[in-house]
Specification:
The complex is a heterodimer of chains A (about 300) and B (about 300). Chain A contains eleven helices and four strands; from the N terminus they run H-H-E-H-E-H-H-E-H-E-H-H-H-H-H. Chain A is of the alpha+beta class and about 300 residues long. Chain A has two domains: about 180 residues, no CATH class; about 100 residues, Alpha-Beta Plaits (2-Layer Sandwich). In chain A, strands 2-3-1-4 form a four-stranded antiparallel β-sheet. The two termini of chain A are about 25 Å apart. With about 300 residues, chain B is an alpha/beta fold. Chain B has one domain: P-loop containing nucleotide triphosphate hydrolases (Rossmann fold, 3-Layer(aba) Sandwich). In chain B, a hairpin with a 2-residue loop joins strand 4 and strand 5. The radius of gyration of chain B is 20 Å and the shape is globular. Chain B starts with a helix and ends with a helix. Classes of the chains: A alpha+beta (about 300), B alpha/beta (about 300). At the A-B interface, helix 1 and helix 8 of A face helix 3 and helix 4 of B.
């Protein structure tokens, strides 16, 4: 085949069909931009939701009289209970220091440390906190759970159930909302691109018809269209990435130094994002123009 | 690239043809219900005679019918042959089947029954993939020109060569000659939209002739043109015919047909009603200028 000829043909076609080409370019740019913004936003939201869910803890309070040996036993017991992911020990002194900071007068007036040693137990999944709670409760509610931790030095186990449920509901809602938005956006983008391609192809239906009459093979007609899609996809994708890069440098980077929140949750880094966007823009527009032509080639 | 493939087709055609002539005795079953059997006396076009294939004919229709899915009859058992280097008019009013003949010849669709041979190739045996290669051997001219609007005159003609894989050098050598022949040398870089109807039709003829096809089909080539411009186009077709190309012109311009005095096949509602092979032909050796004078009635 003669790639040079096809490249020249596709360039000519773009030049001569400037308006449809620009429309296609713009739709690719907008779509890529939207997706480019949306991928990190979804990730950040999910990250934030997960971070909130990670804060669902079960607190195990020891008796105030518990010794270091008691604490060590309890710790091993808790760690061996199912659904427990990790355990963080907060000693009496640490707890006092923390609380005193919040309310120094009250604790000063108290004069002694009323706080027990505490284990902060993180369940392996936020939804499992109730299971962990049940296992750690001594004969909780009269029906001991199999494998439950029985340690007389454990005074009480608590997790504020209502709070946990609230967090779980809210984060689930956020995740579902983001998923629905993402699906809507992807569908809208696909419709936009499909429509643009169909419009520009429709205006050239007659052209294809004439080419077939002159004896052009399907691929002889198709190659310039495919290349045109490839060029438009590449240019549109590149333009979108430039816009994203500018936005990242000016908005996100300056914000992240001010608000630590923005930078905190792990999002995709810029280079892989660029690669994904470029690949999507090019493949969608190339395949789109190549495949949609098929209908017009039936003569 | 093309010739070896063509050879292959020809050989395969011949082999199949031998096997076929024995089995082919009329495959009319599918469309029987469309045929009205009453008040018709059988004429020559009705009898599908298994005559040996004439090597001199370039177009050979045998009992060809075309029924559209809408129920319209495009063509009804047409049998005729066109010889090499003949100039044939296909006349008839709108809907008589002229265009159906043309579209069958470029294999835009298949006949409902019957057999079409072009230069010895049975069209039913050309696969979809081979159609483009087949069409390169046929020049087509239409009433609405069918030029590529985004290409200059030069590029429109060059495209017909490019599809065959012609090199840039070949195109540089060939296209200006063809454009000179068709009187378009000064319009090389114009776009079709900048040309008059007659000029656009000249470009279409030039494109149809670019590959020097053995057969040129013109479907109402003068339908959109004024009489003087029409004469110019007919002169052009005549010149191409004199260069050795078989020309088949569908038209309803009876005036032009009468003046040209060439073979006339008349169709009426899909049936052949006249094939004036024995008509008084005009001189075939006159020059293009003489033809023009005669058409203008000088």
């Amino acid at each position: 085949m003669r790639p040079g000829f096809f490249v020249r043909e596709s360039l000519r076609s773009m030049r001569r069909n400037a308006v449809p080409s620009f429309a296609a370019l713009a739709s690719i740019l907008v779509t890529t931009l939207v997706i480019g913004v949306f991928i990190p936003v979804v990730q950040a939201t999910n990250g934030a939701a997960n971070a909130v869910r990670g804060r669902v803890l079960v607190d195990v309070f020891m008796n105030t009289s518990a010794t270091a040996a008691n604490d060590a036993t309890a710790r091993t017991d808790i760690l061996h209970a199912p659904h427990v992911k990790s355990v963080q020990f907060v000693s009496k002194a640490q707890a006092l220091a923390q609380q005193s900071k919040l309310n120094p007068q009250a604790y000063q007036a108290l004069g002694y440390n009323p706080l027990p040693d505490t284990f902060r137990v993180t369940p392996d999944a936020p939804g499992d906190s109730q299971l962990v709670l049940a296992e750690l409760t001594q004969g909780g509610g009269g029906t001991p759970v199999a494998g439950a931790v029985h340690d007389s030095m454990i005074a009480s186990v608590s997790n504020s159930q209502s709070e946990t449920n609230k967090i779980l509901t809210v984060t689930r809602l956020v995740k579902i909302t983001m998923a629905v938005l993402a699906i809507l956006l992807i569908v809208a983008s696909m419709l936009l691109i499909a429509n643009t391609i169909r419009l520009s192809l429709f205006s050239r239906r007659r052209e294809v018809e004439v080419m077939k009459l002159v004896g052009a093979t399907d691929w002889f007609i198709r190659w310039p269209f495919v290349l045109e899609g490839l060029f438009l996809g590449a240019i549109g994708g590149a333009a979108a990435i430039v816009v994203l890069a500018v936005a990242k440098l000016t908005v996100i980077n300056s914000l992240s130094s001010t608000f630590s929140l923005v930078a905190h949750s792990a999002t995709i880094s810029f280079i892989p994002l660029i690669i994904i966007l470029m690949a999507c823009a090019i493949s969608v527009s190339t395949l789109g123009s190549g495949l949609s032509l098929r209908r017009f080639l039936r003569v | 690239m093309a010739p070896p493939e063509n050879d292959l087709i020809v050989r395969r055609e011949r082999e199949r043809e031998l096997a076929r002539t024995r089995t082919h005795t009329g495959s009319s079953g599918t469309s029987r219900r469309f045929v009205r059997e009453s008040h018709r006396t059988p004429d020559a076009s009705e009898r599908v005679v298994e005559r040996p294939f004439d090597p001199n004919s370039i177009v050979d229709f045998r009992g060809v019918s075309k029924h559209y899915s809408s129920g319209d009859v495009g063509l009804e058992r047409a049998t005729f042959a066109v010889h090499r280097q003949e100039f044939v008019f296909l006349v008839g009013s709108t809907g008589s089947g002229k265009s159906t003949v043309m579209r069958l010849l470029i294999k835009e669709f298949e006949p409902s029954e019957g057999r079409i041979r072009v230069a010895g190739h049975d069209l039913s045996e050309i696969s979809r993939k081979k159609i483009p290669y087949y069409r390169r051997n046929i020049g087509v001219v239409f009433q609405d020109f069918k030029l590529l609007p985004n290409r200059t005159v030069h590029d429109n003609v060059a495209y017909a060569l490019q599809v065959t894989g012609a090199s840039r050098r070949q195109i540089r050598n060939t296209v200006p000659d063809i454009l000179r022949l068709t009187g378009l040398s000064t319009k090389l870089h114009n776009y079709p939209g900048q040309l008059s109807g007659g000029e656009q039709q000249r470009v279409a003829v030039a494109r149809a002739f670019a590959n020097h096809p053995p057969l040129l089909l013109a479907d109402e080539p003068t339908g959109n043109l004024d009489p003087e411009t029409s004469i110019g186009i007919m002169q052009l077709l005549y010149r191409i015919n004199r260069a050795g190309t078989t020309v088949l012109v569908a038209t309803h311009d009876s005036d032009m047909v009468n003046k040209m005095r060439r073979r006339v096949i008349e169709l009426k509602r899909g049936r052949m009603v006249r094939d004036e092979t024995a008509g008084s032909y005009g001189p075939t050796d006159e020059t293009t200028a003489e033809l023009g004078d005669r058409l203008r009635g000088l």
